[in-house]
Sequence to fold (290 residues):
Amino acid sequence: MPMWTVDNEINFFRKALELNSVEQLMIQLQRQYYAFAPKNINYSDRIVTPQSRNGLVGKATEKWCKEFFSDIAKEFGLYAVNGVVCPELGLSSSTAADLAFCTTDAISQPSENIKLIFEIKMGIINNYQYIENDFKFLGDYTTHKGVPSLLRSDSMLKAIGKSINLRVDSNAGKSIPIIILGNSPITDNYTQKVDFLCKSGVIQKFISVYPNPTSNSHVIKSPHMGFETYSSKFEIAKYIENILESQMSYFSSMMNNTDLGHIISIANRESSDELKGLKFLELINANHRI
Fold:
């Protein structure tokens, strides 16, 4: 299954049009229908993308991601599951994981069955015009006035907030890797933020699955690789292999230096580096005081 392309977006509109009107999918401007308002057309009215389209795009991109990642999950004896619910992690039916790698294919999962969580922030990136009963590609995201996928601040902040909730709701969520999936670049002003979030372990990586979103200058990867645009499915599979094979734990605490020193001293009494790490995490998570 290839990476994200223009064909995915055209196919979305074609399929959505089978059950929806053009007005529910596109904006009307000067008697023409567009996915987004083109930058080269002058108009005075405020143009709003149809809200009815958002839910359709969300379902379509979540389904696409499940199909894209299913064979990668199978390599590790896992299932790619949409809409995973786990009360222990604070994942309810209204806040379910968009996609997760699990040991079974059930929607409701205990935390120990969830090995990787994806938050999906994908959308229609390019601009299209509905003409002659079909959809014509007009230009990439730099040619229209929409702000899609990871270029949107609200999408980024929602993804970050949900990831933080997973980390702090229970100890069970501290060992599950979290990846944010998009199909656009990020803005320059988010490069430091994503790198910090990945260095601190809140999120493992922001990934774009659209290798060639524009020929214009854009962020392909952040300085410390917190965000990266992948060019092939093989590259993504290798990264996920490394993530799944790494035994990681998220920890976050704030205490005075004396208490922290005591914790380090106690952890250092263990006989191996792995046991020292586990003891340190145990004491940090319990905010242990000696």
Q: What stands out?
A: Helices lie at 6-16, 22-25, 51-75, 153-169, 191-199, 233-245, 257-267, 273-285.
